[in-house]
Structures are given as structure tokens and as C-alpha cells.
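QA checklist item 7 of 12: single-chain prediction sanity check.
[x] sequence parsed
[x] length recorded as 152
[x] structure emitted
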Amino acid sequence: MLRAAGATGAPISLRDVVSHLNLSLVERRREPFGSEAALVARGDGHAIELRGSSGERRLRFTIAHEVGHFLLHPGRVTSERGGVTNQATARLEREADQFAAELLMPEHLVRQAVLDDGADARRLADRFDVSAQAMSLRLRHLGLVERPARGA
């Protein structure tokens, strides 16, 4: 999908991915107790409604998360207001988070970046335009850094 969208290098262009999938981004006023974003039906297609005022890097992850819902959970268009979650919903959210990490930090690009520049999460976060926390988790998930010892 990344090649088809023309998003082949870091940082991944979400604008290209969203456009390739015929999604639109719509900014809405934040509702109390609402989610930061949601995948919603719009006309004959879908839109990602942005409802929060997060920083740019968090916003990128949120958009990638909603793209994950669009591709992994077709038919799960929602206007949820937050709050109630159950085991099934939690599983869908984890899947969308994993998709977002893989979309923004593709394994082959992360591995090459580590070979080129080392496994410094902050420097790689800048390169991939993600948070240092997201990059740190991705590096651990890919086995490119050791998990810190407890109590260290």
C-alpha cells in the first residue's frame, strides 16, 4: 500500500496514504469526553474526523490509527463518544495501534535507519516524525533494543 500511495521513505506521508485510500480529513470542534478522532461515513465514502488538539506527532499516530480501523475493521464506522470499552473493543484498538506503528515506522525502514544511524529512539523519532515513546516501543517490538531492566 505504501508503494502504491507513493509513500516510500521516512517520514511516511499520511496525506499520500489518506488520498490513496480516498479518505478525507475533517476537523471538528472537540466534544467533551469524546475521542481524538473517529472514522465516520461521509457521503459515498469515509472521513477521519479530527476532534482533538494534539501535537503534530500524536495527530499523525491518531490518523494512522484511524486508517488502521478503515483497513482492518471494515464496517466499523462509529461516532463513539468514548467511555465504555469492552474486551472486543480493546482488541480492535490494539490492532489499530499496531497498524499505526507499522504504517508510520515500517520495519524495513526502521531496520535500515538503525543500521545507518544507530538505535537512538529520539533521533529516529525525529527521522520518522513520531514520538520518542512510539519509536522506543517499535524498536523493542522489532528486537532492535533491549528491554530496560526492572528497577533500573
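[x] summary fact logged: The chain has a mean pLDDT of 86.
[ ] second reviewer sign-off
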